[in-house]
Amino acid sequence: MSAAPTSGLTARGLVRRFGGIAAVDGVDLDVPPGRITALVGPNGAGKSTLFDCLSGVARPDAGRVLLAGRDVTRLPDHARARLGLARTFQQIAVFPGLTVGENTRLGAEQGRGGTVRGLLGLPAPGAPAAREATDRALRLFGLDAVRDWSADRLPTGALRLLELARALAASPRVLLLDEPAAGLDLAQTARLGSVLRALAAEGVALLLVEHDVELVARLADTVCVMARGRVLLNGPTAEVLADPRVAGAWGEAAGAEP
Ligand SMILES: Nc1ncnc2c1ncn2[C@@H]1O[C@H](COP(=O)(O)OP(=O)(O)OP(=O)(O)O)[C@@H](O)[C@H]1O
């Protein structure tokens, strides 16, 4: 087991059971700052359940989650969000009655500005900082032209980008993305890729669940392959993708023994 990094996100010995089934079964994972880590594996491998444990949507039955070196295992999702962890979901979740700009602004207001600054004894970030974070997120995802549209007018791809913009507006230090390219066209996927690389270059720690092999090969620094609740392989992208147990198809990992 590697030493716990002082920043980014770390999981040690995570277990999450549903009845008699361990959906996550003793997972160790490091999501370091400045890197893109991809989490892959066949349907039912436990990827979303692991995301739930990391983001605080679910409480693990055993193990620990560290955010920037701090044990957050018992903190709920909103408290982790204020400490710098943002997450998107497989099912797109935006507020349809609000505009694109208002949805994005919610991310800026729920993000780490408030509590982290508060803990440091600094004043709350205030409207200008939130506006700046909102504007930047909208610009990066090409949504400025539709910022006054009601979110329910957006097609699926743009809705996905809006969810990403809202997560980004929180100025996270750790960003968990559950199938961020689902529903995106080629141009939107390319935009997503360049935004994620830019965030990594700024020092954000990124973890993404992604089924698109080419996107993972192009973007990820490290790939973690899960099967049946366990980590089957974890290492540099090229090495993992060349491993015969993965063989170019995530689904085949299901049949391989660790
Ligand atoms: N709320 C739940 N109640 C009972 N079993 C669950 C629940 N959520 C997940 N599971 C089970 O846990 C296991 C892991 O599911 P999970 O959704 O985490 O896998 P996944 O890798 O994200 O799959 P997919 O790629 O299809 O999203 C599966 O066997 C699933 O049926």
Automatic annotation (TrEMBL):
UniProt-listed Gene3D superfamilies: P-loop containing nucleotide triphosphate hydrolases
ABC transporter domain: residues covered: 9-253
Keyword set, alphabetical order: ATP-binding, Nucleotide-binding, Transport
CDD domains: ABC_Mj1267_LivG_branched
Protein name as catalogued: ABC transporter domain-containing protein
Organism: Kitasatospora arboriphila
